[in-house]
Amino acid sequence: MTKAEARKLLLEKRKALTPKQVNIFQDLLLIRFQELEFPYFSMLHTYLPIYDRNEPDPIPLVDWLRFKDPGMQVAYPKINLSDFSMRHYVEKEDTVFVMNPFGIPEPEQALEIAATEIDAVLIPLVAFDQEGNRVGYGKGFYDRFLASCQPEALKIGISFFPPVDKIEDIHFFDKKLDLCITPDLVYAF
């Protein structure tokens, strides 16, 4: 299956989910996540979901990690449409989030950090395969970002659906996941 085919198929499946199904899947994602043994993360990077696309919400997972490791800091991305890069900002109590052109909340006037300061990344995705390859929305923001992270940074995908068998058109710059959390299973690569 190509990236375009996987993207089309899984976006349609996500769109067809009812609010009740999304809530059930969210609860199951948190249960699967809590079953994992993570090292202490001093800096976790995450995204804020596009709710009208039924994108999995990582915030319950982040809240659980904050409860477990109260000293952990959380960073959020802000995209640059001119070069498809991302900058990363640490959330503070007074951080304000503003919608970007894609309807994604981004931090405003927060402390910027380098990608090399990040220990783990919760990654949005549309689809993934049995080998840990992910399909996003097609602009390469996360592949560029992950290439600049420290090699040992943990890359964790979140999906409501299991993997497709194989994504055929993987490029050398595509970055693989280390784990993908789904409502039924955690996949390790």
Q: What can you tell me about this protein's structure?
A:
The chain is of the alpha/beta class and 189 residues long. Helices cover 25% and strands 25% of the residues. It contains four helices and twelve strands. β2 and β3 form a beta hairpin. The longest helix is centred in the first third of the chain and has 16 residues, at 19-34. The radius of gyration is 16 Å and the shape is globular.
Give me the side-by-side strand order of the main sheet: 6-3-2-1-7-10-11-12
Radius of gyration: 16 Å
The general outline is globular
Q: Uncertain spans, ≥5 residues at pLDDT below 50?
A: none
Annotated CATH topology = Rossmann fold
The CATH homologous superfamily name equals NagB/RpiA/CoA transferase-like
Taken together, the total number of domains comes to 1
The tally of strands reads 12
Helix-strand pattern: HHEHEEEEEEEEHEEE
Mean pLDDT: 94
The level-1 CATH class: Alpha Beta
Could you give a short account of the major beta sheet?
8 strands, mixed
Describe this structure in a few short sentences.
25% of the residues lie in helices and 25% in strands.
